[in-house]
Amino acid sequence: MEKSDDTMSKTDDQWRRELPPERYHVLREAGTERPFTGALLHNEQTGVYTCGACGNELFRSSEKFDSGSGWPSFCDPIAASAVTLLDDDSLGTRRTEVRCARCGSHLGHVFDDGPQPTGQRYCMNSLALDFQKRS
Ligand SMILES: [Zn+2]
């Protein structure tokens, strides 16, 4: 997959061609993977989690924790500017959607029941993320 800086200008057709169907569904149609199915759920290696669509750096392994929810969970993004937060009322309840700030792809939701000191729980789809191992 080509990962360039002009990802913002990609059309829906381009995304559909470049992403595997299951990733397209999560990233571009705001789908949710089934819990406890994600390849990165129990990944405990040291590194950086990036956007599965454009490669934008999103989370560090040091901010990952086991929330028991069945989705990879983080207490803080790598930088506030890495993600965009949006109100999501789609399930009849107010949630906060998390999108990649660079390409606008859907990543998951953030809740305020995470561990201290941030109190945040970024509940991410494993399909929306890639992992780069770093020492
Ligand atoms: Zn992205």
Key traits:
binds zinc ion; six-stranded antiparallel β-sheet; alpha+beta; 135 residues; Metal Binding Protein, Guanine Nucleotide Exchange Factor, Chain A
Task: Give a nutshell description of this structure.
This protein has 135 residues and is of the alpha+beta class. 12% of the residues lie in helices and 30% in strands. The strands form two sheets. Strands 3-4-8-7-6-5 form a six-stranded antiparallel β-sheet. A three-stranded antiparallel β-sheet has the order 2-1-9, with no helix packed on it.
Which helices and strands appear, and what pairs or packs with what?
Layout: H1 12-18, H2 21-29, E1 47-51, E2 57-60, E3 64-65, E4 73-74, E5 83-88, E6 95-100, E7 106-111, E8 121-124, E9 129-133
The chain binds zinc ion.
Residues 51, 53-54, 56, 100, 102-103, 105 line the site of zinc ion.
SSE-based structural type? alpha+beta
Strand content: 25-35%
Bound ligand species: zinc ion
Low-confidence spans: none
Report the CATH architecture. Answer: Beta Complex
Report the major sheet. Answer: 6 strands, antiparallel
Task: Please report the distance between the alpha carbons of the first and last residues.
Answer: 25 Å
The CATH class is identified as Mainly Beta
> What is the share of helical residues?
10-25%
Overview of the molecule:
The chain is of the alpha+beta class and 135 residues long. The chain has one domain: Metal Binding Protein, Guanine Nucleotide Exchange Factor, Chain A (Beta Complex). 12% of the residues lie in helices and 30% in strands. It has 2 helices and 9 strands; from the N terminus they run ααβββββββββ. The protein has helices at residues 12-18, 21-29; strands at 47-51, 57-60, 64-65, 73-74, 83-88, 95-100, 106-111, 121-124, 129-133. The radius of gyration is 14 Å and the shape is globular. The mean pLDDT is 94. It binds zinc ion (ZN). The site of zinc ion has 8 residues, from loops.
